[in-house]
Amino acid sequence: MKDILDELATARRAMGKGKVPAGEAYTIEVRRRYEAQVEDVWDAVTSPERLRRWLKPVTGELRIGGKFELEGGEHGEILRCEPPRLLKVSWLYGPDADAWPGTSEVEVRLVPGPTGDTEFELIHAAVVEEPLFPTYGPGAGGVGWDLHLLALSRLLAGGETTDHEAVEKSPEGREFIRRSAAAWGEAHLAAGGEPEHVAAAVEATTKFYAPDPA
Q: d(Cα 121, Cα 178) in Å, to the nearest integer?
């Protein structure tokens, strides 16, 4: 289990506030380092063949102004693309999401390191309605991104394709989820969250991603 939890510890997490076209938004921010050249990381986050191996299968027009859709329903438009440093997309989910454009955006920033590594930063800004944020806090999206960035690390390290369902059902995966939810709780506290609210949100997030076995 050590390697999977070590991966969790490599990331720095923060919760903040920002803006999207629809108005004020909450942000969840993840920063970490990958032992891979920036061109390799860029290819992994933009190539459909590699995206499906750590995120989800993607279809659409992968160009500025083009629209994309992930298997599972997430979809949006490519807003900025500056290889190999910056990718920004709108990020919508659900059957009614298109009625609320400009409410959610994801930005990935890559900076080449001094030893052939890459500093990776992901910022997800979203206008979050009740009861989603009060119930789950930043872990609502943060745990999901932690799981996907674990999969990206495995892909970059050795080309491994992650079976997300198998990971999330395994004892190691469930412990990863528990600790990820707790880490996002720490970020929530650092951003000024009330301790009782944060504790309840961490518990709700953990149960959502890793429900008790039937």
A: 22
Strand order in the sheet with 104-112: 12-20, 23-34, 118-126, 104-112, 86-90, 75-82, 67-70, 58-60
Could you give the percent of the chain with pLDDT greater than 90? 81
Q: Which residue has the tokens 């039937």?
A: 214
The number of helix segments (H) and strand segments (E) in the chain equals 8, 8
Give the CB-side neighbour count of residue 97, counting CA atoms within 13 A.
19
CA–CA distance, 83 with 43 (Å, rounded to integer): 9
Is the CB of residue 151 less than 8 Å from the CB of residue 55? yes
User: Do the beta carbons of residue 148 and residue 73 sit within 8 Å?
Assistant: no
pLDDT, one tens digit per residue, over 171-213 is 999 999 999 999 999 999 999 999 999 999 999 999 999 998 7
End-to-end CA distance of the chain: 24
Cβ contacts of 11-14, under 8 Å, gap ≥ 24: 11/146, 11/149, 11/183, 13/138, 13/142, 13/183, 13/184, 13/186, 13/187, 14/187, 14/190, 14/191
N residues, the chain? 214
Class in CATH terms, 2-209: alpha beta
Q: SS3 of 82, please?
A: strand
